[in-house]
Amino acid sequence: MSFTVALGGKGGTGKTTIAGLLVRYMIERGMKPVLAVDADANVNLNEVLGVPLDETLSDAREMMKKDVPIGMTKDIFMQMKMEQALVEGEEFDLIAMGRPEGPGCYCAANNLLSSLLDRLMGNYDYLVVDNEAGMEHFSRLTQKDVDLLLLVSDPSRRGLTAACRISELVESLPIRVKQKVLLVNQVQAVPNGWPEDVLQAFGEENIAVLPADPLLVQYDIEGKPTSALPRDSAVVRAAYDVFDRLFAQAEAA
Q: What are its GO cellular component terms (predicted)?
């Protein structure tokens, strides 16, 4: 069984950056093979990881509706397109879901993708899934259990409220979550206490904090992959400490 980490949160909170740092952490800790899944319609996990991306699974889904070659079955076509969409890195692989569905029926394509994704994910010991805010994309295309759900927020009231709402939404989805953690990112100063709704949704023991790091902003502006930040940078040190603690807890559970 694969160990699955899923990330969600309001846009702009840095969840994709954290997903990239998590992939790097896993590689450095020998937690391989790892598959990174970009399930956000705003595809950019490849930029964080520093790898090119030519195709997404949504491209394959669109093509299946009209461009399957004569003499080729749809399942063989989708298998071929999935293999083309898979980006093979030196120590990790990446696949991107792409944009949401357009007009028309996608049931057949989604069913094929779900089956193929299940088969693909079975080849990896670790999965890192970077979701769009609502988690529906992950739920619709994969029915995997989630070992660790990281809901990422910035310190704003809106970000924290969004994380609480996503936490509630996840409870209604057909996904079993073993551990749920709120990761508050870009923090200038840790508050004296968290709002009551945040504590009710997560519990104080399941809230972690990452500091604001000017070097991260600089890398982003310069177009450098943020997964290549120096090991001694503030956000990388803090993220690794959080990951160490979370995986130790998962092993002990």
A: cytoplasmic side of plasma membrane; cytosol
- The position carrying tokens 């969600």 is 8
Which residues, other chains included, contact 118 with Cβ-Cβ below 8 Å and sequence gap of 6+?
A: 142, 143, 144
pLDDT by position in tens, the chain (length 253): 789 999 988 888 999 999 999 999 999 999 999 999 888 878 899 999 999 999 888 887 778 777 788 888 888 888 888 888 899 988 999 998 887 665 544 455 566 667 777 788 888 999 999 987 655 555 554 546 889 999 999 999 999 999 999 898 888 877 788 999 999 999 999 888 899 999 999 999 999 999 999 999 999 889 899 889 999 999 999 999 999 999 999 888 7
Count up the domains in the chain and report the number. Answer: 1
Say if strands 93-96 and 146-153 run parallel, antiparallel, or are unpaired: unpaired
Tokens of 229: 């930040």
- Helices first, then strands: H and E counts in the chain: 10, 8
Identify the three-state secondary structure at position 185. Answer: strand
Segments forming the whole domain that contains residue 28:
3-252
Helix axis angle, 214-222 relative to 234-252, nearest 10°?
110
Task: Quote the Cα angle for 82-102-45, to 5°.
Answer: 50
What CATH number did the domain enclosing 169 receive? 3.40.50.300
- What is the C-alpha to C-alpha distance for residues 97 and 32, in angstroms, rounded to an integer? 22
Tokens of 203: 């519990």
Contact 57, 78 (CB under 8 A): no
